[in-house]
Amino acid sequence: MPGIIKVPDGCHCFTSETTSTSLRSSDAEYAWNAGKNQGLVLKCQKFTVAVAAAVVVVIVALITVTISLAVLSTKPYLPCLPIESAACPDSWIGYRRKCFYVSKEERNWSLSLNTCSSLNASLAVFDTQKELDFWVEIFSPLHYWFGLSREISQVWKWFDGTEFKNQFAVRGEGFCAYVDGKGASSTICSMEKRFLCSRPESCSKPR
């Protein structure tokens, strides 16, 4: 029908042309038609506003999702979160975010290092005096190899070649280090002793 704008749900927005042609001669009928047309116009206006608001909400939501996905895709890898208890294999000991394996068998220093490697670990690394003291108290009076060694006239180094920072004293004139009931000591590397392996604990039990 000319002069009628169709919108969803049967809403018809009347133009001025339609309004003028729909008028009747009587004043009562004219007033009734005018009120009806005004009501339809208001209804259409409310419907249009509602549709516009819904479109804005959808656009904002899509923008938010797009930004979130972009941030997640570029977020750098985060280190393990602090954990309350060690996430270590059975029979290993968790301490200060590390897992330690205490051997029952004896090996020389090199074979001890190889055995730890086969367990996806290394001969133990002690970062502080406090960490060393923890094992001194446990091991007394037994001896356990850990990850320090040196060459003739060279400084102490960890198993991976990192230079030892003298966090604690190492007694003796040997070339391979072990921990006993007194602290860190050294002797010839061919001697057989028990050994202590270590590796970082996993992130499987976040706080």
UniProtKB/TrEMBL annotation:
Membrane protein topology class: Single-pass type II membrane protein
Organism lineage string: Eukaryota, Metazoa, Chordata, Craniata, Vertebrata
Chief place of localization: membrane
All copies of domain C-type lectin, residue ranges: 95-198
Source organism, top-level taxon: Eukaryota
One MF annotation (Gene Ontology) recorded for this entry: carbohydrate binding
Species this chain originates from: Thamnophis sirtalis
Any Pfam family hit: Lectin_C
Signal peptide residues on this chain, from the entry's feature table: none
CDD domains in the cross-refs: CLECT_NK_receptors_like
Compartment annotation: Cell membrane; Secreted
GO CC terms of this entry: extracellular region; plasma membrane
Keywords, alphabetical: Lectin, Membrane, Secreted, Transmembrane, Transmembrane helix
Protein name: C-type lectin domain family 2 member D-like isoform X1
Membrane-spanning parts: 47-72
